[in-house]
């Protein structure tokens, strides 16, 4: 089965073509990726310091068709080779989701194909199955993106249990807001991680929120405020450029160390509580090198395996949507296909979409 995947939930337009045959034959799921196109709107939103929903929707309209053409050329396929169309049904920006949904359903209807609405986070949390060492079910997924921070128990396709989540800012949001405080461009996650590499550990005593809360929930807004307080406290007026750069790098280092410490500790707790020994890291913040090294080190020490998606599939993309849609269709025997209505779900709880 060839599944077309369309991702338009936020500021990336992603299109991909996925062949389920390798997966069905027990081979590497990665072999099923036949073609993909991705356009990031980051440069367009940068001037505004964040995503402007209306601009995002309009850009998805402009990009989606050329990206489909690109994916078809790359894969050597024709439109008529496609068996089903998967699209991100939610959660995300309503206007942006509508573009993908309208496009996917229009195309599916014109070709006489089923369409399937995919939960964006399901795309993220199944994407490590496309990685080099695919995890076995059940596993714990640490989902860290711009909009979500969650620990989930994944018992199988469509079997998700929320163990804990952020009570305020998402991890990616904390990265982006802190980056802004340090004068870095949106989205600042990758930039702050790079800056932290030049920082010295332990210079600033930043909080590690909810580290000892006893549950698996998170809170990151206080950490961002603590960074803001340090920025306010240190006047950089009489500092040399080199000293300012070092100050920012040290602050970035303390910020990253704090956030990583909390994420690692709660992941360990989730593994312990559930008796799982496989952890999956997914979502944009999953590209963070400090988090990856800390989780790898913890895994070696505590005896659990850590699995990642391929690095370029950590942030939003069409492949994960095509893949998740394909697995849903195989598992549910096509039962998950959607109607012709434009029923997007800007707010959507993943576990509510579990298979019975
Ligand atoms: O999953 P994603 O592409 O979009 C959402 O679904 O939200 O995640 C985007 C988030 C942004 O907040 C971005 O700053 C963060 O992922 N991010 C990173 C890194 N690369 C992307 N955060 C920390 N370190 C990185 N290397
Ligand atoms: Zn995402």
Features:
single chain, 356 residues, alpha/beta, 5-stranded mixed sheet, binds 5'-O-[(R)-(carboxyoxy)(hydroxy)phosphoryl]adenosine, binds zinc ion
Describe this structure in words.
The chain is an alpha/beta fold and 356 residues long. The protein has two domains: 167 residues, 2-Layer Sandwich (Nucleotidyltransferase, domain 5); 174 residues, ATPase, nucleotide binding domain (Nucleotidyltransferase, domain 5). It is 43% helix and 18% strand. It has eleven helices and ten strands. A five-stranded mixed beta sheet has the order 3-2-1-4-5, with helices on both faces. Strands 8-7-6-9-10 form a five-stranded mixed beta sheet, with helices on both faces. Strand 6 and strand 7 form a beta hairpin. The longest helix is centred in the last third of the chain and has 34 residues. The chain starts with a strand and ends in a 24-residue tail after the last helix. The site of 5'-O-[(R)-(carboxyoxy)(hydroxy)phosphoryl]adenosine has 19 residues, from helix 6 and helix 7.
In short:
The radius of gyration is 21 Å and the shape is globular.
As residue ranges, the low-confidence spans are none
Distance between the termini: 24 Å
Element pattern in H and E = EEHEHHEHEHEEEHHHHEHEH
> What's the total count of β strands?
10
Main sheet strand line-up: 3-2-1-4-5
Task: Give the bound compounds.
Answer: 5'-O-[(R)-(carboxyoxy)(hydroxy)phosphoryl]adenosine, zinc ion
For the sheet with most strands, the description reads: 5 strands, mixed
């Amino acid at each position: 089965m060839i599944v077309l995947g369309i991702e338009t939930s936020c500021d990336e337009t992603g299109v991909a073509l996925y062949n389920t045959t390798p997966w069905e034959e027990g081979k590497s799921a990665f072999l099923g990726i036949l073609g993909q196109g991705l356009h990031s709107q980051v440069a367009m939103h940068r001037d505004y310091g964040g995503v402007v929903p209306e601009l995002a929707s309009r850009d998805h309209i402009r990009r989606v068709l050329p990206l489909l053409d690109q994916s078809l050329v790359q894969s050597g396929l024709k439109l008529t080779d496609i068996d089903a169309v998967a699209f991100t049904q939610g959660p995300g920006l309503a206007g942006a989701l509508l573009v993908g949904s309208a496009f996917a359903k229009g195309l599916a209807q014109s070709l006489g194909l089923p369409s399937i609405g995919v939960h964006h986070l399901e795309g993220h949390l199944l994407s490590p199955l496309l990685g080099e060492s695919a995890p076995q079910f059940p596993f714990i997924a640490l989902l860290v993106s711009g909009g979500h921070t969650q620990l989930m128990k994944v018992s199988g396709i469509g079997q998700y249990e929320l163990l804990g989540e952020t009570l305020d800012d998402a991890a990616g949001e904390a990265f982006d807001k802190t980056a802004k405080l340090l004068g870095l461009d949106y989205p600042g996650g990758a930039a702050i991680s790079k800056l932290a590499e030049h920082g010295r550990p332990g210079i600033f005593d930043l909080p590690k929120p909810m580290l000892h809360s006893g549950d698996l929930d998170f809170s990151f807004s206080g950490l961002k405020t603590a960074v803001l307080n340090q920025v306010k406290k240190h006047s950089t007026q009489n500092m040399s450029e080199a000293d300012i750069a070092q100050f920012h790098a040290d602050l970035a280092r303390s910020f990253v160390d704090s956030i990583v410490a909390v994420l690692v500790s709660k992941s360990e707790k989730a593994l312990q509580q559930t008796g799982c020994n496989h952890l999956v890291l997914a979502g944009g913040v999953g590209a963070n090198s400090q988090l990856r090294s800390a989780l790898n080190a913890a895994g070696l020490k505590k005896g659990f395996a850590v699995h990642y998606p391929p690095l370029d599939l950590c942030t939003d993309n069409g492949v994960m949507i095509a893949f998740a849609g394909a697995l849903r269709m195989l598992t549910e025997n096509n039962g998950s296909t959607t109607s012709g209505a434009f029923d997007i779900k800007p707010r959507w709880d993943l576990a509510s979409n579990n298979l019975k």
